[in-house]
Design a protein that fits this description.
254 residues, Rossmann fold, seven-stranded mixed β-sheet, 7 strands, globular
């Protein structure tokens, strides 16, 4: 995640602390993002399945794919120095900038770009670099949010529709091999309700408002929203109309 600075606002820092405190509920309906997290590991396993050769994880953060790859794959995690050290407290295999990858032409078999592209100031330049380092017909797996609030501010720059991703692939010299849609309309709606509820509670606490006595109500709101979304999503499955995000697989042309 390149940029001249990665300093986050005090509010972002406090929000991060609140998220860490809520992490103990991560895989329960009491968590605001449970509808996303409950499929997270399964989706990552599907993504990593079948990857062979040198796998470059750009913006690797905590390097979750490393443990899920087969023995025939060699994992290399790359992250921007300030992002890794100041935000996540992680240590990638390689420090680098997605816009200027420190690898030779045609030297990488697969690239992972997972929840990173929205944070890149110049995504086309980064994709050009990815195309350069990929072997002919090498693959890049991209995951991006769609209906999702600003996160990791101030480095959150854009969102794409599935149609925008197709056009981006064509413009950058890739062929679309697979497309996956995450989140049904009920799940998107519940996610927004849950995150808005959490943000409201944070604001009330910051302002020491008398309304902060309503804080114990927040888990109930989140629980009800999650369970209703789960029930309704059995009827209305994921589709591009309202999606929490997309994952696509592109292959390098030529």
């Amino acid at each position: 995640m390149p940029g001249k600075t990665t300093n986050r606002s005090p509010r972002a820092e406090r929000g991060g602390a609140l998220r860490r405190a809520a992490s103990i509920f991560r895989f329960t309906p009491l968590h605001p993002q449970w509808l996303i997290y409950r499929h997270e590991r399964r989706n990552l396993i599907d993504l990593c399945k079948g990857l062979r050769g040198l796998v470059l994880d750009v913006g690797c953060a905590h390097q979750a794919p490393r443990a899920l790859l087969s023995p025939s794959a060699q994992y290399v995690g790359l992250d921007y120095y300030a992002t890794a050290s100041e935000w996540y407290g992680t240590r990638p295999d390689v420090y680098g900038d997605a816009h200027a990858l420190p690898f030779a032409d045609s030297s990488i078999d697969n690239v992972l770009l997972l929840d990173v592209m929205e944070h890149l100031p110049c995504p086309k330049k980064a994709l050009s670099e990815i195309r350069r380092v990929l072997v002919p017909h090498g693959r890049v797996s991209i995951q991006v949010p769609f209906i999702y609030p600003i996160h990791d501010a101030p480095l959150d720059f854009q969102r794409w529709t599935v149609f925008g991703l197709r056009r981006l692939a064509e413009e950058c010299g890739f062929s679309v091999a697979e497309e996956h849609v995450y989140g049904s309309a009920p799940e998107c709606a519940a996610l927004m309700v849950n995150l808005a509820t959490g943000n409201l509670m944070l604001s009330l606490l910051e302002k020491r408002s008398l309304l902060s006595v309503l804080l114990p109500v927040a888990p109930l709101v989140i629980l009800v929203a999650n369970l209703l979304a789960l029930a309704f999503s059995k009827v209305q499955t994921s589709e591009p109309f309202m999606a929490t995000g997309y994952r696509v697989l592109w292959t390098r042309q030529g």
